[in-house]
Write a structure and sequence with these properties.
With 146 residues, the chain is mainly alpha-helical. Helix content is 47%, strand content 10%.
Length: 146
């Protein structure tokens, strides 16, 4: 969720729709992030060869801080003077400090080796939000004035 939110804010900044400030919550949390393009084939394979009713963790087995993730997004931005502002309304009353999955069982079953490519994931999600924001706001600007 954070990666989507950060990328959407940056896309809006790049189009001049917001001042160059990204509003964030706690950036010290660590998350295990898996790109669905890496995970989808394994989900399909596991569905066909996995044991019925068995649970399998599809995860990278590595963590990245939200701060590092945000820095990757800011580095990919076309606007270089973006600042970061902590917003207390984005803080959770209770937030897991580290969410890290154990993918041992699925790796043994399928032979899968996760290949997290955070830079590519960030670039693709940022490009998605650039298109979405541009489409949304150009459509609003083309509406007839009443």
């Amino acid at each position: 969720q954070a990666i989507q939110n950060f990328c959407k804010q940056v896309a809006m900044i790049e189009l001049g729709l917001h001042p160059p400030v990204v509003h964030v919550g706690d950036l010290s949390t660590k998350r295990d992030i898996t790109d669905m393009r890496d995970a989808a084939p394994i989900l399909i394979k596991t569905a066909s060869i996995g044991a019925l009713g068995e649970a399998y963790n599809v995860c990278s087995g590595k963590v990245i801080t939200m701060e590092h993730l945000l820095q990757l997004i800011l580095a990919a931005s076309t606007v270089k003077n973006i600042t970061v502002q902590r917003d207390t309304s984005r803080l959770r009353v209770y937030d897991e400090r580290i969410l890290l999955g154990d993918n041992t069982k699925i790796r043994h079953l399928t032979g899968w080796t996760p290949k997290p490519d955070y830079e590519q994931t960030v670039e693709d999600i940022l490009n998605y939000w650039r298109r979405e924001v541009k489409t949304l706001y150009s459509a609003e600007q083309s509406k007839p004035q009443l």
